[in-house]
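Subgroup meeting minutes
Present: P.N., E.W., G.H.
Scribe: E.W.

1. P.N. recapped why we're keeping a running log of single-chain structure predictions: easier to compare across weeks, and new members can see raw inputs and outputs side by side.
2. G.H. added today's entry (164 aa).
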Amino acid sequence: MKSLHVTLNEITKTLALRCHFEPNSDSLWCEIADKNLLLQLAEILQTMNARVCMITAYEKEDGHELVYHFDLNGVMLNLKLRISDKSVPSITPLFKSADWTERELSEIYGIAILNHPNPKRLFLDESIKESVLQEYYSLSSAMSGKVSQELWSRVKAEEGVRHG
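Output recorded in log:
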């Protein structure tokens, strides 16, 4: 991992990219603030045969933090991006494995995925308002039958409005 850390930092320095990969336990982390930098780093990782494992999102008071988790030769590379305008460019054209997770970000968090090749919803019918899922539940709460039933009732009620 040490050599990968050094290699990535040499590449970013050579290309004058404003970022730095830091080792943390058994993975590498890079915090970025620029969406264009996300695309540049994704292009570099694609040329190195990395693959997207997951994209996670955290809602913050002033926006969202997205973490793009890549695997490169058994090492996890994590790109952390803070967004405040609820939009991010798609990396699906570079990594087909990002398709579903980007669409989940759009559907669950309302984040616009710019230039996604297939922006259709995954789970909710297109006619159901996105606001149905805007209330977040913790996993422990969601495991409660009462909360699950309440959420399902809200979705079904919205579907009833749609069908008149």
